[in-house]
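Worked Example 4.2. Consider the chain below.
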Amino acid sequence: MNAAQIHNFFRNDRFAAHVGIELLEVAPGRARARLEIDDRHLNAVGVAHGAAIFSLADLVFAVASNSHGTVALGVNVSISFMKAARRGTLTAEAEEVSINPKLATYLIRVLDEEEHLIALFQGTVYRKRDTLDAHLPSA
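Applying the procedure from the previous section yields the following structure tokens:
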């Protein structure tokens, strides 16, 4: 699958769409997406909920790890929150740091509009033998 096909495949991520995440770029081992923070993303103290930030990072993790056309499923993730975000647009960028036939590891940076680091996310996937093509909806 090429980058455009991967991008289209992830239009089926209904949770990311529900949260309001927009996938911007896809390349082998990489992805970029954004989330415009609004009232539904705020926690009780008025800052972006950790789950909203995690969801943004998790989508680019999924896209980058599946960008080779092989089904990749998360087996371990961690996130560290560096700075609160209240409003504006957050951008997440995923970078592949290690890959082999069974496992791959990714580093995701979540930035605000001023490019301040909001969160760092690291994730490892198990790479299955299945291809993404096998999971496309039937025409």
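The two ends are 17 Å apart (CA to CA). The longest helix spans residues 50-66. Compare this with Example 4.1 before moving on.
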